[in-house]
């Protein structure tokens, strides 16, 4: 089954950032356990009908003692837009090279 079918969700913020070509969303979901970043990305992909490569999950916070989780994410217009904005992880240079 689809991830969305099993999860109740409530969009609490959906802000369009024209400058960075993305939507900035905050969503509260009810889930049995912490969905983690990968699962949160899949939920958002299905909810907004975008490719996983357009979604950046910034945070997954749980409310203590409850089965509700706050997802904080960016949904880019395209994978290209995401590539231009998101920081690439820095590759550490080995000492002595």
Walk me through this protein's architecture.
The protein has helices at 3-6, 36-48, 79-85; strands at 8-17, 22-30, 55-62, 68-76. It is an alpha+beta fold and 97 residues long. The protein has a four-stranded antiparallel sheet. The longest helix has 13 residues, at 36-48. The mean pLDDT is 88.
Order of helices and strands: HEEHEEH
Rg for CA atoms: 15 Å
- Helix percentage range: 10-25%
- Overall pLDDT: 88
Counting DSSP E segments of at least 2 residues, the number of strands comes to 4
* Arrangement of strands in the largest sheet: 1-2-4-3
Shape descriptor reads globular
In DSSP terms (H or I, runs of 4 or more residues), the helix count works out at 3
pLDDT < 50 runs, ≥5 residues: none
Strand-pairing-aware structural class: alpha+beta
**Beta-strand residue percentage:** 35-45%
Largest sheet: 4 strands, antiparallel
Gap from first CA to last CA:
51 Å
């Amino acid at each position: 089954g689809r991830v969305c079918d099993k999860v109740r969700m409530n969009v609490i913020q959906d802000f369009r950032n024209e400058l960075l070509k993305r939507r900035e969303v905050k969503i509260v979901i009810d889930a049995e356990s912490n969905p983690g970043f990968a699962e949160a990305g899949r939920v958002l992909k299905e909810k907004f009908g975008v490719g996983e490569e357009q979604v950046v999950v910034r945070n997954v916070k749980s409310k203590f003692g409850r089965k509700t989780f706050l997802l904080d994410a960016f949904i880019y217009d395209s994978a290209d837009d995401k590539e231009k904005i998101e920081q690439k992880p820095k590759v550490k240079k080995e000492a002595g090279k």
